[in-house]
Amino acid sequence: MPEPQALHIAIDGPAAGGKTTVARLVAQRLHLLYLDTGAMYRALAYLALRTQTEADNAAALRRLCEAGCIRVELDVTAPMGFRVFAGETEMNDAMLQSKEVNAVVSTIAAHAAVRDAMVAAQRAVAAHGAVVMAGRDIGTVVLPDARVKIFLTASVDARVARRRAQLASAGIDAGSHRLEDEIAERDRLDRTRAISPLAPAREAHVIDSSAMSADQVVAEIVTIVERARAV
């Protein structure tokens, strides 16, 4: 487990809730390292597709994890704020957000064996010191002793608009109706899975960002962090 003295900030929330954008901006404001754990699951999904590993083959997927095929490097100069590799391939946002990855990532992330391997890797990152970590089970499972826990949510309409803009920036065109269906299905899978279902940590500060800009959310989180540091 990470040392309690380190400043760990856990930012969880549903798909397209804005947590990755906000987490990276918070990390920049506070001069901390940043990791989007969802990118690790997406990198595994990409590798599974490339190696023709079935999405329901938990044992084979875990072997990919344990073989060191999925690794991350914290690097503030990288385009995503960190680097994630699937085998020898460094992933970019277009790869991670492809429709093929989107189609299987929830199934892959639901396996207990996969999540165990990923959680161990994520805790190893946090053991090196302060970090802002975004995901779906950071405050509840990965870093249950994090000093600050945020659960960032938003309306479906707001999340569809954000995901469409994110995909557009990666050169991917997607219709609103398809995105709404995908987000609704991702919500269902995340909230009903048996292992680490999506839910706010008991101590989490819940922020509905539907009508807020990213800068406004960042300012609120920074205020929460400053209060926690003062205790």
Share in β-strands: 15-25%
CATH fold-level label: Rossmann fold
| Structural class by SSE content | alpha/beta
DSSP helical segment count: 10
Question: Which CATH class?
Answer: Alpha Beta
CATH architecture: 3-Layer(aba) Sandwich
Based on Cα principal axes, name the global outline. Answer: globular
Q: Quick one: how many beta strands?
A: 8
Mean pLDDT metric? 92
The percent range for helix content is: 40-55%
| Strand order, largest beta sheet | 2-6-1-7-8
Q: Provide the CATH superfamily.
A: P-loop containing nucleotide triphosphate hydrolases
Main sheet: strands, sense, barrel: 5 strands, parallel
The structural domain count equals 1
Rg estimate, integer Å: 16 Å
Order of helical and strand elements: EHEHHEEEHHHEHEHHEH
Oligomer: single chain
**Low-confidence sequence ranges:** none
Distance between the termini: 22 Å
Describe this structure in words.
- With 231 residues, the chain is an alpha/beta fold.
- It has one domain: Rossmann fold (3-Layer(aba) Sandwich).
- 51% of the residues lie in helices and 16% in strands.
- The chain is built from ten helices and eight strands.
- The strands form two sheets. The protein has a five-stranded parallel beta sheet with strand order 2-6-1-7-8.
- β3 and β4 form a beta hairpin.
- It starts with 7 loop residues before the first strand and ends with a helix.
- The model has no long low-confidence stretch (mean pLDDT 92).
Compact overview of the structure:
With 231 residues, the protein is of the alpha/beta class.
